[in-house]
């Protein structure tokens, strides 16, 4: 259950990051509200996951999902560049996440 909570928390991190971009510096109401609600839910689920997962593992996986997910949303939805170097960097993050998961005792 902790891993599911952590996965959803990471996905919500992507939601709040994308909504924050759309909020235009918190000047637009609905994207600002989505940012705040998704942020609170993401932190709550991360906290729940940390009850049984090690801090380093949980936080690394959470931030990694958020980073790579936001990278994908930036390319797929916001039209950001998908240069070979940026894609390689995202691949290295994913490799680190896999290694972190494999090294976890929980």
Q: Can you give a write-up of this model?
A:
- The protein has one domain.
- Helix content is 79%, strand content 0%.
- It contains four helices and no strands.
- Helix 1 (2-22) runs antiparallel to helix 2, helix 1 crosses helix 3 (55-76) and helix 3 (55-76) runs antiparallel to helix 4 (84-103).
- The longest helix is centred in the middle third of the chain and has 22 residues, at 55-76.
- It is flat, with a radius of gyration of 15 Å.
- The termini are close together.
- It is a multi-pass membrane protein.
- Keywords: Cell membrane, Membrane, Transmembrane, Transmembrane helix, Transport.
Order of helices and strands: HHHH
Number of domains: 1
Overall, the morphology is flat
The chain-level mean pLDDT equals 96
Task: Please provide the count of β strands.
Answer: 0
Number of helices: 4
Radius of gyration: 15 Å
For the biggest sheet, the summary is: none
Please give the share of residues in helix: over 70%
Q: What class would the helix/strand composition place it in? A: mainly alpha
Range of strand content: under 5%
**Unreliable stretches:** none
Membrane topology: Multi-pass membrane protein
Pfam family, one: Multi_Drug_Res
GO molecular function, one term: transmembrane transporter activity
InterPro entries: EmrE-like, Small_drug/metabolite_transptr, Small_multidrug_res
């Amino acid at each position: 259950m902790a891993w599911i909570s952590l996965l959803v928390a990471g996905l919500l991190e992507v939601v709040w990051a994308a909504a924050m971009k759309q909020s235009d510096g918190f000047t637009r109401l609905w994207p600002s509200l989505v940012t705040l609600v998704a942020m609170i839910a993401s932190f709550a689920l991360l906290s729940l996951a940390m009850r049984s997962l090690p801090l380093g593992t949980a936080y690394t996986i959470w931030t990694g999902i958020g980073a790579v997910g936001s990278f994908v949303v930036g390319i797929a939805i916001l039209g950001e560049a998908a240069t070979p170097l940026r894609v390689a960097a995202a691949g290295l993050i994913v490799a680190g996440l896999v290694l972190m998961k494999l090294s976890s005792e929980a």
